Amino acid sequence: MKLKDLGExxxxxxxxxxxxxxxxxxxxxxxxxxxxxxxxxKYLLFTTDMLVEGKHFHKCDKAGLxxxxxxxxxxxxxxxxGGVPKxxxxxxxxxxxxxxxxxxxxxxxxxxxxxRFEVDLVGGDTVGSGKIVINIAxxxxxxxxxxxxxxxxxxxxxxxVTGNIGGSIKLRHLNFTPRxxxxxxxxxxxxxxxxxxxSDALLADLGxxxxxxxxxxxxxxxxxxxxxxxxxxxxxxxDGEDFELVxxxxxxxxxxxxxxxxxxxxxxxxxxxxxxxxxxxLVKKSGKSEKIKPAGFTHF
Length: 300
What we know:
It is a single chain. With 300 residues, the chain is of the alpha+beta class. The chain has two domains: 20-145, CATH 3.30.1330.10; 149-291, Phosphoribosyl-aminoimidazole Synthetase, Chain A, domain 2 (Alpha-Beta Complex). It contains eight helices and 13 strands. It has a seven-stranded mixed sheet with strand order 8-10-7-11-9-12-13, sandwiched between helices. Strands 1-2-3-6-4-5 form a six-stranded mixed sheet. A hairpin with a 4-residue loop joins strand 2 (34-37) and strand 3 (42-52). Helix 3 (63-80) runs parallel beside helix 4 and helix 3 (63-80) packs parallel to helix 5. The chain is globular, with a radius of gyration of 19 Å. The relative contact order is 0.16.
């Protein structure tokens, strides 16, 4: 069997079944970051992301934007857990023939995001590689009462999404703002039951929440905020790399959230969590409901 026959997430599940964790681990594989015991009042968050030339960026892309994306992806993961980023290590693979200016500008982009989100860059590794590869591991922390997992969605929760969805290929996937401020506002002021960042696609990532929570959902085409850069609704909800937040909270808080939302970032109510037996459905603008699959980007 080839990896492409098994699929990315089946491979991850295959690994997960063989791993035994110590009592220090609150949450391992299966969320935006691992959750580890830390202090009396806080958990430690630990996440990592890898970017590969030709997959996540191209050599012709501005090096500073590539570097910024490399760290921003990780900050977005910490935001989705309700936490705050703190310390990062950065490992890169560079061809020896790479222009030094490109390497300097790439690190400049990483440092810019580190300064913006008060992340200390504390180490890493550099190796020779046929293509440019960037891997960043990020440690964050979260107050125990503010930790938000994918697995907490409850029946009748309202589903929200920040920002606009789709069209990220038109540069936005390299030039986005992790929704850290928005996430911290949410967890400090509301009981957010579940949250994830949109990296693989709206349908895929909402699907992760539903799977981990053992729930279904109905989402409404007319309320999903499709970006003007998207080529259509279907591509918008399946393409990924939007790095927005999808989250659920009790219906009783929904109106207050909309009334008190303090950001220019768009906030949209896009659906409702159902019991697991009802599956995942899309209510079209016509009013017709159709079953959908949580499709999105996979690596193989």
